[in-house]
Design brief:
Blueprint lengths: L9 E14 L2 E4 L4 E6 L3 E5 L6 H9 L7 E9 L2 E2 L5 H7 L4 E4 L3 H4 L6 H10 L7 H14 L5 H4 L9 H13 L5 E5 L7 H18 L2 E5 L3 H7 L2 E6 L2 E7 H6 L4 H8 L48 E2 L9 E2 L15
Helix pairs in contact: 4-5, 4-7, 5-7, 7-8
């Protein structure tokens, strides 16, 4: 069993979570024994290439996977409740109220036939037994103001197509925070936005977390977002968490070759005319995972010991906070970080 890095006052803990989909070839696991925890008020970044299992992990926490074809093995502990086995009626009481999610594309998540205010108010009314329409409107307008939308009373009555991309993303955040959740999951919340609006959205989310104590899980490809916003970084590869470390340690002194490879792929101002570094090969298919370390066929440091299955284990680094890596050579390798 893999032990997650437990934060003080852990709010959410995933313990050996394997997500599998039923296919014509049988049950195919897309993640394997994912274990980590998120403390109250903590901001955790989940990074990795497309197809590594980030989004499906976030959706499993919310129990938004199609349960007729998806199965969750392991435990997802949220304040003493196992969300993986919680009856759907009880899960609906958690979803949106205690745990909320900001989706990647707001135009897909927002209903074009209802005003944005109606949709935000509905999110609050769904969890209030005696809430009135007037109170819901008041709270929705307050949420719009909280996320920095000017003239919130007017915007309440507008439709999604009348707003810019940045405004729509702020509406999604308002909808997510109106019930004051304890955990907010943000799946690529700034992908479709320009750099200026992206910075504003990330500043907004960080400010909300610091002001309200909301814990956050950021699912992203953007290591810059993680560096600016998060306190911890989880690196995911081929359905497994391969490194779990405080964000500064992960960026400056990575202990897994894959984390180092992601950091080497970042463009650097000092190397304007140099060829961008890349990781050779591609993420293996869920139906064709290699034996042993799943990264070894792309790793320049692979050796015979890497053919054995690797576990996420503690790595002792002098002067650093606790961290874990899924690499047999994690204690000995000197890997390049973001500024080395």
């Amino acid at each position: 069993m893999t032990a997650p890095t437990t934060s003080p006052g852990a709010l959410l803990t995933l313990q050996d979570v394997t997500i599998a989909f039923r296919t014509s070839r049988g049950e195919v696991p897309v993640t394997r024994k994912v274990s980590f925890s998120i403390g109250r008020g903590e901001r955790v970044g989940l990074v990795g290439e497309s197809g590594c299992g980030k989004t499906v992990t976030g959706l499993s926490i919310m129990r938004l996977l199609p349960m007729e074809v998806a199965r969750i093995h392991g435990r997802i502990d949220f304040e003493g409740q196992d969300l993986a086995t919680l009856p759907e009626r009880q899960m609906r009481a958690v979803r949106g109220k205690d745990i909320a999610m900001i989706f990647q594309e707001p135009m897909s998540a927002l209903d074009p036939v209802f005003t944005v205010g109606t949709q935000i108010a509905e999110a609050w009314l769904a969890h209030q037994k005696n809430g009135s329409a007037s109170e819901a409107r008041e709270r929705a307008i307050k949420a719009l103001a909280q996320v920095g939308i000017p003239l919130p009373e007017r915007r309440f009555d507008e439709y999604p197509h009348q707003l810019s991309g940045g405004m729509r993303q702020r509406v999604m955040i308002a909808m997510a925070i109106i019930c004051e959740p304890k955990l907010l999951i943000a799946d690529e919340p700034t992908t479709a936005l320009d750099v200026t609006v992206q910075a504003q959205i990330m500043d907004l989310l960080r400010d909300l977390s610091e002001r309200t104590g909301t814990a956050m899980l950021f699912i992203t490809h953007d290591l810059g977002v993680v560096a600016e916003t998060c306190t911890r970084m989880l690196t995911m590869y081929a359905g497994e968490v391969v490194e779990d470390a405080p964000v500064d340690n992960a960026l400056m002194r990575p202990r897994h070759p894959y984390t180092s490879g992601l950091l080497r792929s970042l463009p650097r101002l000092a190397e304007r005319h140099a060829r961008l570094s890349s990781i050779p090969g591609r993420v293996p298919s869920p139906t064709g995972m290699p034996a042993g370390c799943r990264y070894r066929e792309r790793c320049e440091f692979a050796e015979a010991a890497c053919t054995a299955e690797q576990i996420l284990r503690p790595v002792a680094m002098a002067g650093e906070l606790p961290r874990q890596a899924r690499c047999v050579r994690a204690d000995e390798l000197e890997l390049r970080g973001a500024v080395s």
